Sequence to fold (99 residues):
Amino acid sequence: MLFIFGITFISYAIDLPAVIAKEPNRYEGTCEIVMEELHEDVFTVEAVFDDTWAEYEHDEFPKIRKGEYYCKVDYYPGSSIGTGLQLYLGQDGAVVPTK
Fold:
């Protein structure tokens, strides 16, 4: 249990300077949207890209659907907490409604 707490603490601590400065990382490119069911009817949304991911609460994006999109993702890499997400139907495509 202490080991898990330590790993979690370290991953959040890595992001601390960026969180204080309000400067998340930004990724632009192809990503896959994955829905992960935590409990019955309780989901998280993950934007998976470049061997990493950003995680969001499904309540933030109730209209989001699984699939591959062109994405603009703001996130903190140590904790994988997503702070912003925009989806498009291709690099110059239409915006995909998520809210």
User: Anything to note?
Assistant: The first helix runs from residue 2 to 21. Residues 1 and 53 are 25 Å apart (CA to CA).
